């Protein structure tokens, strides 16, 4: 039902019940009138406005009228006392239409951003017409893109998705969107694909209209953001693992030190058995040694990762260095009933390396191997030269590792194997080894079979003929101190 009154006019849906009551509730002063009575009001308003506008009784919606504007003074008796005063509803309709057009232009501009192609296609992908071509496609001749030209430039893996979107848009008249890879070069040229967002809409007559927008930069930005997020999550996870591992590694020896030192303190009178007292002192000493080793490993690892580890490179006799490390580990191997052996050539070339770092590498590998080898097992060290590199291998017959663990070997605090073995170490040893090997531009490899044993292989480049130490040594045998960052730049 259409209504009009002293301050307005409009339409009330028939389903609204009592129109007059509803209008009065919503807009006081507005009265309802049947459509046949509202028509004379429209004519009176049109005459009174003198061509300033037109009153459209069928415009629909609520139309505001300016009360007291003095434009209309006449009454329409047929409609009761309805005063035709106000503004033409066409004015608001024009404003509304203008806003709609502006919104449409904004949306078109948004969609047009990055538009590379606008094309018409048959359902089989054949290009019927090129409506617009920009960017890399602007300089191509029209016949290069017509027919199968565009379809052949779509990545083979993405062609089914394009055909599916095209057929669906033509079939049910609804717009489809798909992302695919497209190149501007012809088939056979070096592929340089760009990611395109393709919106496909029905164009009538069995054709589909496709809008190709380049989204390569947006995808790359999204990938960078995802990579940064993943890296942040990995860093947070590493921090959590570090804190958890440190709390365990520190708590265990500290509890031993505190507990056994309290027992000794309580025995001020000296009634404790001397053998037990000595055993308690030994445990305290070993716990302190463990803490010291843990702190040293953490400091070394932090310096390596920060590129601040000082290398004092000199010509090293690796035969003598490895033999010395075997002597240092002999007592621990004997205590665990593990056999230590070596397979070394009579002569090895000198290696330009940091003596302290190389000794730490070999000792950490031997210690790890002995620790994870059961009684009666063997640990063998071998060395040699191949492909211009000095090779060092440490092989054990220990518990071995599952293939899933191999990829993580060398990560700080990561320990492969069962929980019993994990409790016996911090997981920092191999992380330090890997970092020190990297500083020497070496290669670190691990192979292992669960229940059979593990082999750690190291390869250090020999920078000159066998037996000659070329880098980091000046005439006269003087060595050159180098930081980790210097080695990386060399």
Automatic annotation (TrEMBL):
GO terms for cellular component: plasma membrane. The keyword Glycoprotein does not apply. The chain crosses the membrane at residues 52-73, 79-100. It is an enzyme of class 2 (transferase). It is found in: Membrane. Keywords: ATP-binding, Kinase, Membrane, Nucleotide-binding, Phosphoprotein, Transferase, Transmembrane, Transmembrane helix, Two-component regulatory system. It catalyses: ATP + protein L-histidine = ADP + protein N-phospho-L-histidine. SUPFAM superfamilies: ATPase domain of HSP90 chaperone/DNA topoisomerase II/histidine kinase, Homodimeric domain of signal transducing histidine kinase. Residues 245-464 form the Histidine kinase domain. One of its GO terms (molecular function) is ATP binding. Pfam families: HATPase_c, HisKA. Its EC number is 2.7.13.3. It comes from the Bacteria. This is histidine kinase. It comes from Aquabacter spiritensis. The lineage of its organism: Bacteria, Pseudomonadati, Pseudomonadota, Alphaproteobacteria, Hyphomicrobiales.
